[in-house]
């Protein structure tokens, strides 16, 4: 998974006109990546519940292995419709995260997604979250910004963002969880 992530980051760098290894430095030492094992039990009222509510992944990439049962849905931007991601045997689903959105200064966008449950089958999924080192200062890459395309985000420290997110994730809160749009520079 890690090797694949490095490869995918190379392709993203090339697609942005950067040198292939541009992102490597953020992950070489003390990256904060991890794998989560998700279990979604059967649900008698799948219309009334969600496995995971709508969100965007906060890291650089997510590589998701889902087993025999589908359930991941992505919000289509044009009409805000939730589209089910097809189950392809032995294939990973690659999701771009918020960090790539910030690094690319919005050239890439992390998609909103959610997980639905079903009444017949329980579901298992295993996402690998490719996260940089804690000290990483996340901000649009200097090579990609100029007078015509000014930086759209203020820099933020990844470690702090992560701790804040983990501390608030499973609590009821009156305010929104920490999000990259809090760092957005209004233009
Ligand atoms: O279980 C899935 O298919 C996706 C879970 C997910 O979106 C997440 O853990 O961030
Ligand atoms: Fe997710």
Automatic annotation (TrEMBL):
Classify the source by domain of life. Eukaryota
Pfam families reported for this sequence: 2OG-FeII_Oxy
Q: Per its UniProt record, what InterPro entries does this chain match?
A: IPNS-like_FE2OG_OXY (IPR044861), IPNS-like_sf (IPR027443), Oxoglu/Fe-dep_dioxygenase_dom (IPR005123), Plant_2OG-oxidoreductases (IPR050295)
Q: Which Gene3D superfamilies match?
A: B-lactam Antibiotic, Isopenicillin N Synthase, Chain
Q: Where is the Fe2OG dioxygenase domain?
A: 31-132
Gene Ontology MF term list = L-ascorbic acid binding; metal ion binding
Q: Which residues form the signal peptide?
A: none
SUPFAM superfamilies documented for this protein = Clavaminate synthase-like
Q: Which UniProt keywords apply?
A: Iron, Metal-binding, Vitamin C
Q: Which PANTHER family match?
A: OXOGLUTARATE/IRON-DEPENDENT DIOXYGENASE (PTHR47991)
State what protein this is by name: Fe2OG dioxygenase domain-containing protein
